[in-house]
Amino acid sequence: MTHTLLAIALHALIAACGLGALCALGALRLRSRTLGGSAALLGLAYLCGYAVTFGAATALLTIGVPFALPTLLAITLAGTLPLIDRLRRRRPSRRDIAALVRPGSRGELVGLSVAALVFALGLATQIRVPLTQWDAWAIWTNKAALFANLSHLPADTFTAPAWVGHPDYPIGLSLWEAAHFRALGRTDTSHVAALDWGLLSAAMLAAFALAPGRSGRVSVPIIVAAALTVLPAATIGYADVPMGLFLAVGALALSRWQQSADPGALRLAVLLLGGAAITKNEGLMGAIALLLAAFACGPAAGRRAVALGAVAWAALFVAPWRIWLALNDISGDLHLGHALSPAYLADHRERLTPIFDALTTALLSDHTLMLVPIGIVALLALDRSRAVAGFFAVAAVLYLGALVLVYWISPYEIGWHLSTSADRTFRTLGLLALPAILVAADVAAARRDDDSTDTLRERS
Q: Most buried in the list 73, 257, 286, 317, measured by CB within 10 Å?
């Protein structure tokens, strides 16, 4: 029981660290001063806390600082300092606190009650699910079990012939699981599905927190539909869905920055894309695609800020791990030089046909069919916000192109590689449709309000 409470306290500290990060970034804003707004903010805070805590833990590990509960405690407590400072300077009144824990309406109370029930049932059903999927126990949780028992980066283990997992993959997700195991007092892999369920729930709340204001009640079914598309792959211990969730919420923050020029939203997006980068290699590619799209399609006055944000993202979330890999002569199975060789690409052009067949199958599967076409329609509907539509379109094309290129230069037999990874790899692309649909709903609401205003003027 004591260890269970310690594990719960650890996740609470991660969320508190995220609240501190939101304060430091100038992005601590409630969607509404109600219980629903508070819950949404906590979901966003947990994602931010994950990025800060395990981005910092990765960087510290690369310079020899041990991975242990005291280290995590120091990171999370340091992360909460901006929140403590804000509360010290502006102490909330009892009325403010009462508002934050009171539902804004009967509908919100019903919605929150249903959401809490679903979350509790999900945790109850997932808490003892055995880890059976290959990549889950061979790569991500394999590393988590390693870090649950070791306090340093074992370069010799990562390069050993018997090591199964890809040694160059980021370790953020594995450190997150290992932190839970350390607090729990044992390496219990049956908790991984419950952890993934919690992260999915936090991402849904985060999307609601960042959804444009006029999308209103429509945003709830849109977010739930997006969660349903990835639910089959969300709780099996793979990194694809967690990475995709960070990319989707980061894209939503970038779209908010494009529409409002709010620097806090841009800084928040950089942090969330950092969470994607420390989770999976595809998160690195997706983050680059989103930042390039924001630079190309964003306001000209904001391009310098995007460039600086990209530099900070690379320095904080990419460079420490990549430098450690290079210093220890650890590499992955992809030779990126092949991507720059026209001769190599031409010699392997026969791989393109099965790649695009797998892409079509994945994007038109039962799980993504409800999102991808709607996302395309949403882009077409964003006629009043063409820069935002261009941002989503460019980001999707760049990310898709990067995924195709990875399969093109992969050293593995293409049929086997696609059969074991394409469905989940391409399916997470559908998550990028979520922010586009939310923004389109906001634009549609604005158009409806304008039409209503014009009608009233004509009558008067």
A: 286
Tokens standing for residue 127: 């808490």
Contacts within 8 Å (CB) and 24+ apart, 154-159: 155/328, 155/330, 158/328, 158/330, 159/328, 159/329, 159/330
> Which residues touch 385 (CB under 8 Å, ≥6 apart)?
259, 439, 443
Flag whether the pTM goes above 0.90: yes
Give SS3 for 315.
helix
A 10 A CB-CB count for 434 gives: 32
Residues 369, 375: contact at Cβ < 8 Å?
A: no
* Calpha distance 169→180 (Å, rounded): 20
What is the C-alpha end-to-end distance of the chain, expressed in Å?
68
Q: What are the Cα distances from residue 65, in Å, to 62, 86, 151, 184, 275?
A: 7, 30, 8, 22, 21
Closest CA to 337 of 347, 329, 345, 348: 345
Which uninterrupted H or E stretch holds 146? helix 141-149
Residue 87 CA to its chain's centroid (Å): 28
DSSP element (H, E) containing 174: helix 172-184
Alpha-carbon Rg for the chain, nearest whole angstrom, is: 22
pLDDT in tens, 60-112: 999 999 999 999 999 999 999 999 998 888 777 677 666 566 666 666 666 67
Summarised one tens digit per residue, pLDDT across range 383-416 is: 556 778 888 888 988 998 999 999 999 999 999 9
Give the integer Cα–Cα distance in Å for 270 and 29: 17
Distance CA 244, CA 173 (A): 13
CB atoms within 10 A of CB 15: 22
Distance (Å) of CA 110 to CA 95, 114, 123, 299: 23, 6, 20, 41
Q: What is the dihedral of CA 379, 381, 385, 386, to 10 degrees?
A: 50
Distance CA 186, CA 145 (A): 9
Question: Which stretches does DSSP call E strand in 273-405?
Answer: none
